[in-house]
Amino acid sequence: MRFLISAAALLALGAPAQAASTFTPPEGCSVYLTVQSRGCRVSNHYTCTADAPGDQWRADFDQEGIFFLSRIDSEAQWVESFDFFPTVRQTLDPNPEDPASFSGLLSTGLDTFAFGLSRDNGEQSSVTGFDRLTGKTVTIDGVTLEETEFEYEESDATGTVMRRSRGHEYINREWRNFFAGPSEWDGGEGFVPIDGSPVQFILPGEPGFAATEPLFDCDAIMSSYPMSTPKKESGHDDL
Fold first, then answer.
1. pTM for the full model?
2. What does UniProt give as the signal peptide span (predicted)?
3. Looking at the predicted structure, is the pLDDT value of residue 219 above 90?
């Protein structure tokens, strides 16, 4: 890993949302896209000059502030992520059995994956699943996206399934990224429907760029989501 977020940078990113209404990425990094989504989430996507070519980060905020930070590589592999409060770092294990491949998905319409994850709290797990292009497209806020179908499950070191998810997501070829869609998530108590679909794509210079305050579904989320449902969305967004 060529770029490592310092403890000071993590503390700054995890500051309460009211401390600033505009996201400031770590030094040497720049935001290229802000996404306001359903499910009371706003995400700021950014790149850093010290990272490997094609790497990109996403910082997720809800009404209380930042809650998730993740890095993917040029093939949209989950390389590194941070859950906040308490802060837990998760990394992709070396030499995955079947690496996720964005290029493979684009060229064949199907990508399977199997890899391991390690967390600095000692937890280890394995993930298996697939992404498949459905052939459908959708235009959201002027941006054309391709729909995918996905399914995955994550198991602990003993083989016990910890969580699983299935449903639909969207991809953008230019940004080489996945965006949440309508899906189902199961953390051990049965599948729960979730929809974190994007509503607004905000580019540099546009109103709301680099915002940290989510706009959509926030009151509904606070009153109706089960306590076991993760703030992070399903599919690629919650690993």
1. 0.88
2. 1-19
3. no
- Give the residue-averaged pLDDT of 5-31: 68
Q: Tell whether omega for the bond before 86 is within 30 degrees of 0, i.e. cis.
A: yes
3-state secondary structure of 104: helix
In a domain, 1, yes or no: no
Q: Is residue 2 part of a domain?
A: no
CA-to-CA distance for 55 and 70, rounded, in angstroms?
A: 10
User: DSSP states of 123-166 as a string?
Assistant: -EEEEEEEEEEEEEEEEETTEEEEEEEEEEEEEETTS-EEEEEE
Q: Which residue has the tokens 């953390």?
A: 187
Tokens of 38: 């359903």
Instruction: Compare 28 and 233 and report the one with higher pLDDT.
Output: 28
CB 51 within 8 A of CB 2: yes
Domain count, the chain: 1
CATH number of the structural domain spanning residue 109: 2.40.360
Which residue would you say has higher pLDDT here, 9 or 82?
82
User: What are the angstrom distances between the C-alpha of 104 and each of 127, 132, 166, 176?
Assistant: 18, 10, 20, 12
Q: What is the structure's pLDDT at 62?
A: 96
The tokens describing 175, both together, are 């940004």
Any domain includes 72: yes
Nearest alpha-carbon partner for 82 in 66, 73, 72, 70: 70
